[in-house]
Design brief:
By secondary structure, the chain is of the alpha/beta class. 42% of the residues lie in helices and 16% in strands. It is built from eleven helices and eleven strands. The chain starts with a helix and ends with a helix. Bound molecules: 1,4-dihydronicotinamide adenine dinucleotide and oxaloacetate ion. Its EC number is 1.1.1.37. It comes from Populus deltoides (Eastern poplar).
């Protein structure tokens, strides 16, 4: 029988040859991952996060690693993915995690993906609008979407990078240019507005946020964020003061966090939570679950604008049905006109960035 000493020498020998399981180190392993007796081909979806080492990317990667619908998780960024990948890769949940660093590895990160989540780009500092991020983030989103068009044209894309009201039209134009555009598969993530609206409305009504459903339509910046308090579930009435307070607080939720962080970025943890809630809904839709409905900023015919956020039904092909606004009260009708004016400019700015 093997003595304890012999056993520990044997284990030390194996450990010395085992490297962290990421794509940068596998070549140098003596015991390659291919030689391990790991279970292969687990059912589930392949998900890539672009911008995975950032403030949103890291907690988002952690939460996606915990999602049982995910079998493979690719983490791409221009910095720090080896560390994030090694760290998250040790979690004893099902998804296999692989890291990809820098532009030369973008194509490998994207090949074969079912869902691509994009939180890459710079965040706001106090005093900035989301539109102030356009100059840097527009180019980042363009490059990443060119990669998607080339390597995983059928993937569902969840776009988080701001300004969402312009980055979604940018992505659409990139895909059109590449001949791969499917409007159903491109979704701007406005879930954080819904998460905030549910929280703040629940506070006012004295309910648990899980019991509350607030549709938030329009876009994802200031007055373009339009909560429809007249359609809150459970049916509720609000005084004019409550309506004004809730609408403003939901519209300014992002700025509230930017100011509280005082130069250290914008919402990351609540955004990662919201992104996972939305990604999970997309994956349930892909799986064929019935009745998966969430708000998102998508190609739309609900208004005269080419993109608009409303409730959408998520299915195997993405946003399979885009729901109408439903009846609005006078306060919401005025808000809608203001939202559409700003949205039209932001959409046009995104379109012109690619067409110019
Ligand atoms: N849609 C929404 O509701 C929200 C959107 N955001 C937006 O999400 C974006 C990211 O925010 P944070 O994670 O806080 O920023 P961050 O600066 O902490 O992280 C961004 C990450 O993107 C990476 N990155 C930069 N260029 C890249 C490229 N070409 N390819 C891949 N990765 C690249 C950076 O290296 C960094 O790790 C910002 O634009 C922010 O405004 C933030 C909160 C809510
Ligand atoms: O406010 C920002 O810059 C980030 C964001 O989009 C949000 O928190 O809603």
């Amino acid at each position: 029988m093997e003595s304890i000493r012999e056993a520990s020498q044997r284990i030390a020998k194996i450990s010395a040859h085992l490297q962290p399981p990421n794509s940068q180190t596998e070549e140098s392993c003596v015991l390659k991952r291919a030689d391990c007796r790991a279970k292969r081909g687990a059912p589930g979806f392949k998900v890539a996060i672009l911008g995975a080492a950032g403030g949103i990317g890291q907690p988002l990667a952690m939460l996606m690693k915990m999602n049982p619908l995910v079998s493979v998780l690719h983490l791409y960024d221009v910095v720090n993915t080896p560390g994030v990948t090694a760290d998250i890769g040790h979690m004893d949940t099902g998804a296999v995690v692989r890291g990809f660093l820098g532009q030369p590895q973008l194509e490998n990160a994207l090949t074969g993906m079912d869902l691509v989540i994009i939180p890459a780009g710079v965040p706001r500092k106090p005093g900035m609008t989301r539109d102030d991020l356009f100059n840097i983030n527009a180019g980042i989103v363009r490059t990443l979407c060119e990669g998607i068009a080339k390597c995983c044209r059928n993937a569902i894309v969840n776009l988080i990078s701001n300004p969402v009201n312009s980055t979604v039209p940018i992505a659409a134009e990139v895909f059109k240019k590449a001949g791969t555009y499917d409007p159903k598969r491109l979704l701007g993530v406005t879930m954080l507005d819904v998460v905030r609206a549910n929280t703040f409305v629940a506070e006012v009504l004295g309910l648990h946020p899980k019991e509350v459903d607030v549709p938030v339509v329009g876009g994802h910046a200031g007055v373009t964020i339009l909560p429809l308090l007249s359609q809150v579930k459970p049916p509720s009435s609000f005084t004019p003061e409550e309506t004004e307070y809730l609408t403003k607080r939901i519209q300014d939720g992002g700025t509230e966090v930017v100011q509280a962080k005082a130069g250290a970025g914008s919402a990351t943890l609540s955004m990662a939570y919201a992104a996972v809630k939305f990604a999970d809904a997309c994956l349930r839709g892909l799986r064929g679950d019935a009745g998966v409905v969430e708000c998102a900023f998508v190609a739309s015919e609900v208004t005269e604008l080419p993109f608009f956020a409303t409730k959408v039904r998520l299915g195997r092909r993405g946003a399979e049905e885009v729901y109408q606004l439903g009846p609005l009260n006078e306060y919401e009708r005025v808000g809608l006109e203001r939202a559409k004016k700003e949205l039209a400019e932001s959409i046009q700015k995104g379109v012109s960035f690619i067409r110019k």
